[in-house]
Amino acid sequence: ELSEALKTNSTLVTLDLRSNASGDDGAQALSEALKTNSTLTTLNLANNLIGDSGAQALSGALKANSTLTTLELQSNSIGDNGARALSEALKKNSTLTTLGLQSNSIGDNGTQALAEALKINSALTSLNMDHNSCDPEGQGYMLQQDMVI
């Protein structure tokens, strides 16, 4: 199984799993591997039917992982609860520089939580929130952090 191989992998730095319909279960399995993997820097999970529970699992991995710099989660089904979980991870993670969350279902509450996390996180330099469900008020939270939405 891929997640088991990733736990002991010592060479792979980029893993592109976009459009594989792995869902929340796949995100959970990968999250367990990311907690111990020390080489992967880029993970693309775009268009994988990942919802809030998958995002919550990935958040746990981001709290423990110290090598991942890019995480692409665009075109999934992540909502406010998933965004809040990711925001908690961003408060602790110091290596992730790029997070793609465009084309999800993140509303104002999730956007505000992410904006609050950015007050603490100084590593993230790119956060793509394009095509989500936040209104101008939610967009304002990001603009206050000088982030592109």
UniProtKB/TrEMBL annotation:
The keyword Repeat applies. Keywords: Repeat. The keyword Repeat applies. InterPro entries: Leu-rich_rpt (IPR001611), LRR-containing_regulator (IPR052201), LRR_dom_sf (IPR032675). Gene3D superfamilies: Ribonuclease Inhibitor (3.80.10.10). This is Uncharacterized protein.
